[in-house]
Specification:
The structure is a single chain. It contains four helices and no strands. It is globular and about 40 Å long. The chain has 87 residues and is mainly alpha-helical.
Length: 87
């Protein structure tokens, strides 16, 4: 959804390829392909477990947790990119 919305806001076709996917951003941050696969797998498992545990909570709390997790991921990627730029 993020990629589609970004492309639409930029006036680009949502079906044209680009390097705006999370794995491209992690590659640009200096991680290797195996590290990226492990990181994304662990992130997905963590998200699955987290959402499984909060299914009994109010929907607003679930959405807030989901959005908070997304913000943390984006923040972590930006820190990785800054550290690579300094190196």
């Amino acid at each position: 959804i993020r990629i589609t919305l970004l492309r639409l806001f930029e006036g680009k076709s949502p079906f044209m390829p680009d390097k705006n996917h999370i794995h491209h951003k992690l590659l640009a941050a200096g991680l290797g392909q195996i590290s990226i696969v492990i990181l994304l797998t662990m992130t997905n498992l963590f998200a699955f477990l987290l959402f499984y545990l909060i299914t009994d909570l109010d929907n607003n709390i679930g959405i807030s947790v989901f959005l908070g997790l997304q913000v943390l991921i984006i923040f972590a990627i930006s820190i990785l990119k800054e550290n690579k730029a300094r190196s």
